């Protein structure tokens, strides 16, 4: 591939750059992940796409190339469909509740896979909180598969195991100073290539809901889509947003915030650090604190989307029943 020719197309600036067709985008990102693009050209390409933004066809081509390199897992038999949660942002201003959401989903008998980075110099990662909760980081495909089948707790897979080539792209952020296409792609990654499963997907701005929804329709995949919390895919306890379900090419509104006014805010972690968040999470799961209403509603959405409840009301009843039981 003539990389200078590609740069000439995509590197003309926000208003004059041209989009690549899906096949060219696939071949380009396949070469990037294979380490076949020289450093100078790679830097130019990453900055060009950072300025231009990825078109739908480009994102589909990039995703196809990434999918070839993502570790595969088998969905456990005789269990609900797995739920996959990406975690690449962590906590910057408020405590990260992704581990609480993952543990709550496990208690509802969902197989749960969380994947993400293990460290971020400016944020508290889910990986750090999981470690404080004694939820192990998986270090092999066999170990991840075994933990998934056991189903006792979420399976955390570092991106360096899930897709080493993508991990290399993510780490370029610290060298270049800005994020690149890998940060969007990582949040779309899944180890379940040929099994029904649900991805929790978040966007940073409401206008991206349509764009990401169209992506999941194009790949015919199931997902729950919402505005995230500091880039994480858990429902914000301080501000509800709409949650959409995507299944077999159709998108429907599962959670309308206007129907569920937020109750007075319950106790949240006293600090955003991993130890404080883990301690609060354990207390919450023991019933010492109520589950945040936003998390209750997100859990009910998961039950409704996967067909385990017939309505949000029934899902909420089920969630409240499970989390009101004594834990001993």
UniProtKB/TrEMBL annotation:
Keywords annotated in UniProt: Glycosyltransferase, Transferase
Gene3D superfamilies tied to this protein: Nucleoside phosphorylase/phosphoribosyltransferase catalytic domain, Transferase, Pyrimidine Nucleoside Phosphorylase, Chain C
GO MF entries: anthranilate phosphoribosyltransferase activity
Gene Ontology biological process terms in this record: L-tryptophan biosynthetic process
This protein's record includes keyword Glycosyltransferase: yes
Domain Glycosyl transferase family 3 N-terminal: 6-68
Any Pfam family hit: Glycos_trans_3N
Cellular component terms (Gene Ontology): cytosol
InterPro entries: Anthranilate_Pribosyl_Tfrase, Glycosyl_Trfase_fam3_N_dom, Glycosyl_Trfase_fam3_N_dom_sf, Nuc_phospho_transferase
Keyword Iron: no
Name by which UniProt lists this protein: Anthranilate phosphoribosyltransferase
Organism: Sodalis ligni
């Amino acid at each position: 591939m003539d990389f200078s020719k590609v740069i000439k197309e995509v590197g003309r600036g926000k208003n004059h750059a041209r989009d690549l067709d899906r096949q060219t985008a696939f071949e380009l990102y396949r070469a990037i992940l294979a380490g076949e693009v020289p450093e100078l050209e790679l830097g130019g390409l990453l900055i060009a796409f950072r300025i231009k933004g990825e078109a739908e066809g480009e994102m589909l081509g990039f995703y196809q190339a990434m999918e070839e390199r993502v570790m595969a897992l088998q969905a456990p038999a005789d269990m609900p469909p797995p739920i996959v949660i990406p975690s690449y942002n962590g906590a910057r201003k408020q405590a990260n509740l992704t581990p609480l959401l993952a543990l709550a989903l496990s208690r509802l008998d969902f197989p749960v896979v969380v994947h993400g980075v293990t460290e971020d110099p400016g944020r508290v990662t889910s990986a750090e909180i999981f470690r404080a909760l004694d939820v192990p980081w998986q270090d092999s495909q066999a170990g991840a598969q075994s933990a998934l089948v056991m189903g006792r707790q979420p399976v955390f897979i570092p991106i360096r195991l899930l897709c080493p080539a993508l991990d290399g792209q993510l780490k370029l952020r610290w060298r270049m100073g800005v994020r690149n296409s890998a940060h969007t792609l990582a949040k779309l990654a899944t180890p379940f290539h040929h099994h029904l499963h649900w991805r929790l997907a978040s966007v940073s701005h409401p206008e991206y809901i349509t764009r990401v929804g169209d992506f999941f329709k194009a790949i015919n995949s199931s997902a729950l889509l919402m505005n995230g919390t500091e880039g994480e895919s858990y429902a914000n306890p301080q501000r509800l947003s709409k949650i959409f379900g995507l299944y077999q090419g159709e998108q429907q509104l599962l959670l309308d915030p206007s129907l569920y006014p937020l109750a007075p805010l319950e106790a949240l972690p006293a600090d955003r650090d991993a130890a404080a968040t883990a301690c609060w999470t354990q207390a919450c799961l023991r019933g010492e604190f109520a589950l945040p209403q936003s998390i209750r509603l997100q859990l009910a959405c998961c039950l409704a989307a996967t067909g385990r409840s017939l309505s949000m009301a029934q899902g909420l009843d089920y969630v409240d029943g499970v989390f009101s039981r004594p834990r001993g």
